[in-house]
């Protein structure tokens, strides 16, 4: 199966990019804005302060610098090994092969997030509205980010995105 960049990314032009990541502001701050959303439900963010590009990994709950600026980031998007690793090409290919496809406005998501014990496997995969995915994962990670690894979580409280 041939995977293209359009299979690995999703359009979020129909959404307010400034508000899309509101539930992640506790981690990413106010100066980072989304420039690309991956089909696996992560986001690449440009920092308005210095132009650097970061990867917001919504499964891991991390935000990591991946490029010094948007030009460097666009160059990385032409490198197959980098794209395969950072845009989860093998995972997406597996989802597509097994018939899990995205509708407009959706990303792949985990039914039970890995941070709450869910597995990175097809049986745990689903599709989700982009806004709902970023809102829920941000809220969950905010509530558990200070807990030691392995701490049992008995309750998560979620609010609907605005």
Write a structural description.
- By secondary structure, the protein is of the alpha+beta class.
- The chain has one domain.
- Helix content is 31%, strand content 22%.
- It is built from seven helices and seven strands; from the N terminus they run H-E-H-H-E-E-E-E-H-H-H-E-E-H.
- The strands form two sheets. It has a five-stranded antiparallel β-sheet.
- The radius of gyration is 15 Å and the shape is globular.
- The model has no long low-confidence stretch (mean pLDDT 93).
- Name the shape in a single word: globular
Distance between the termini: 38 Å
Class by SSE composition: alpha+beta
Strand neighbour order, sheet with most strands: 1-2-3-4-5
Low-confidence stretches: none
Biggest sheet record: 5 strands, antiparallel
Q: How many whole angstroms does the radius of gyration measure?
A: 15 Å
Number of helices: 7
Note the main attributes of this structure:
single chain; 162 residues; alpha+beta; 5-stranded antiparallel sheet; two-stranded antiparallel ribbon; 7 helices; 22% strand; globular
Which helices and strands appear, and what pairs or packs with what?
Elements: H1 5-8, E1 9-10, H2 17-20, H3 25-28, E2 32-38, E3 43-47, E4 53-57, E5 62-67, H4 70-76, H5 80-86, H6 89-97, E6 106-110, E7 125-129, H7 130-144
Antiparallel strand pairs: 1-2, 2-3, 3-4, 4-5, 6-7
